[in-house]
């Protein structure tokens, strides 16, 4: 779903036909810092169209209501200044629509309280999974060094003091194989 030319008219058109159980991804083109939509559209998409979640690559309105409802919505921020509800003067560029559809179709969106990371479909493989496990293991080591070895964050993150601790690293390697 997309908005463009500071208009959310195309959003209203496109959401009419959303199927159930979808994650609705909305992208804004040429909308400056305007909100794409707010509570009304969110309620329609999530409750009446039975979508699972909304991810907006742009801003939204009605932050208090969206937080209160605890709906599964992620966006780039909030503003009370919304898009215009007018039909755009020209059709959306089909080449851009196609390019962005291909970019996001089959990708994975990881959404949490910090925001959204889109993992492109070409990166979804065993190598990427191994990288994620490595990140998780590294964070486990960092918190262990902070909590139990009383090192400061400079020693942990910058100097990587734990790498010079052969006993610690051999024990860590054994635990990671389990």
From TrEMBL:
Keywords of this entry: Magnesium, Metal-binding
GO terms of molecular function: metal ion binding
Cofactor(s) this protein cannot do without: Mg(2+)
A matching Pfam family: RraA-like
Gene3D superfamilies per the UniProt record, alphabetical: Ribonuclease E inhibitor RraA/RraA-like
Binding site for Mg(2+): 62
Highest taxon listed in the record's lineage: Bacteria
UniProt-annotated binding residues for substrate: 38-41, 61
SUPFAM superfamilies, alphabetized: RraA-like
Annotated protein name in UniProt: RraA family protein
